[in-house]
Amino acid sequence: MKPKEKAETLVDKYKPLVTTWDCHWDVRRREDSITSDAKQCALIAVKFAKENPLNTDGYNKYLDELKQEIENL
Q1: Are 14 and 70 in contact, with CB atoms under 8 Å apart?
Q2: Is 4 helix (H, G, I), strand (E, B) or coil?
Q3: DSSP character for 23?
Q4: According to the 3-state scheme, what is the secondary structure of the chain?
Q5: Residues in CB range of 1: below 8 A, 6 or more apart
Q6: Are 70 and 42 in contact (CB under 8 A)?
Q7: How far apart are alpha carbons 42 and 1 in whole angstroms?
Q8: Under DSSP, is residue 18 helix (H, G, I), strand (E, B) or coil?
Q9: How does pLDDT run across 10-57, given as a tens digit for each residue?
Q10: Which residues touch 19 (CB under 8 Å, ≥6 apart)?
Q11: What is the structure's pLDDT at 25?
C-alpha cells in the first residue's frame, strides 16, 4: 500500500477511538478536532514502528514517507 493510502487508512482507524464528545461543553466535537487527535495517534504508531531495531533501511524510508503523508492530511 502506498504511503498516502496507508496514512488515510491509519488515521481513519483511529477516529472511532478518540474522544468524540466534549464533556466540558456537553457537545459533540468538531470533525477537524477528531481528525487532529487521530493523526496524533497515527504518528505515535509510526514513531513506535520506527524504534524497531530489526527495520531495514527501505522500511524506515517507507515509515518516513508515511509520517509525512499523515502530517499532510
Answers
A1: no
A2: helix
A3: T
A4: CCHHHHHHHHHHHHHHHCCCEECCCCEECCHHHHHHHHHHHHHHHHHHHHCCCCCCHHHHHHHHHHHHHHHHC
A5: 9
A6: yes
A7: 16
A8: coil
A9: 999 999 999 877 777 788 888 999 999 999 999 999 999 999 999 999
A10: 29, 37
A11: 77
